[in-house]
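Table S7 (text form). Paired inputs.
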Amino acid sequence: MEAYTGFAEVYDKFMDNIDYPMWCHYLCELLKDNGVETGTLVELGCGTGNVTMGLAKEGYNIIGTDISPEMLGIAFEKLTDEVKNNILYVAMDMRELELPCQVAAAVSICDSINYITEYDDLVIVIKGVKKYLAPEGVFIFDLKTVKYFRSIGDNVIAEDRDECSFIWDNYFDESDNINEYQLSLFIKGDDGRYDKFVEEHYQRGYLIEEIKEAAKEAGMNIVSLYRAFSHENASEDDDRIYVVLKK
């Protein structure tokens, strides 16, 4: 069962509680704090393009990458005349990053990095980003924390809407900090009948020390570790943190 196949179709409906303009504003703030005011960026795990579109509207050129062709298909449909010349979407596993040029920065938002469940793969991702960063380039990404996943624990979450519903069966393994959930989706078709999709998702909660060690192993310098949407130092008590690495 692959992730983000059936879910791609309704992803934006269930994520309508996310304040994407605020998230993009904060991300742009971090980029500019680190000297990236213009240029080309790569976004890892761009999904349906909500952050990509926001960055493009801020004047950046974006290469949006995602492992899910279904998610990218939705992103393509959203392209407008205002930004279509500033965005290139490519289906790609972030562990096998290949870009046509150097970039001023790499970003990865909405806990895409949590889907990298092996520590060695995290090092590979950071090394791959470093390879394509311009001198003094930065890699900014967010993460849900172990504390966040622990707070969900073993739980079942359900939401019922007219056009789509889901059942989220969650399990968090304390031994390896892997969060597993089975997502059952019921999506209403044009004929009024509901199609069922089942997906399995795996995410890992990384400790701050693990992030520091991975960055060191990949040859990147840690500039900042922030509590999400602030400039306060991150801690294990936060639900989401932002990491800023520099080449």
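Next pair, protein 2 of 2.
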Amino acid sequence: MDFEHISTQKLDQTFQKLIPFRDSNLNTYFAGPVNARIIVFVHGFNLSFSLYSAFILTLQDQFRVLCVDLPGHGYSGEQNEYSLEVMVEAVCATVSYYKITSFMLCGHSLGALVAIAAYNQMLKLKLNPLCVLAFSPAGIQLRYSVGMRLLKFKFISQMIPKKTIANGARLEFWRRTGRFMPKQLWEAVKEEYNTMNAANKQRNEDRMIWMLQNFKWEQKEVFQQFKGRLCKVIWAYKDQYVNEEAGKQFLEGNDVFVQDTVNVIHEIPIACPQFCVNEIIKLMEMNE
């Protein structure tokens, strides 16, 4: 799949709002035609919804879009921990705050895992999510880097300075994100990321280290317990940290999942926003 021509237009900050969450806050964005169908989008690890501006702006031409910076990400406040349960609680709190019902959940990478986990919780809260579209979801089958393997041993991680861990994780993030991306798009993403990171550098490092050391990155039970009407998973094959073939085999045993594969980078909503919007439209139409 070829990269799309992508606008570097930023999101209108007048549609952003800080809402209360636990003892801190969440940065949210809610925009689009008032009476349109609603999409709730959840971003990936180390990112912010602001880095998906081309995707969100394309989406809100037809839909009303609700986004949230996950705890400790973007411009949301810090928490004592950053478990999947806290992430799910944040997304549910955002939906409850805006009093929306009958919406599609959509997520990328970590956000896709959070969206799938949030679905069942939202059913319990009677928030009425319709379906989930998961782009390159975390939680199924990883290929562990050397750094990720080392951090599994607490005695080793305790010997490594936190700054070294954070810098190493950031370098791996850049390699994963930038190695396939067109230069102009990559420069725009880096500029937005660096601006965001500068405002919350210490918080970002603390959260990143907590998640690298404590977050359970393979959570197949979340997928096995999914009871939704429909979840579509789209795999991106240019990803050195995900075992796509093993993931596909796992999903084939869970008949609530429809799956597809595309020859593009892990950050598919950033690199191919129109393709992703088209997939959302197709899944929405199937659930009408």
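The beta strands are 16-21, 24-31, 38-42, 64-68, 103-108, 129-135, 231-238, 257-265.
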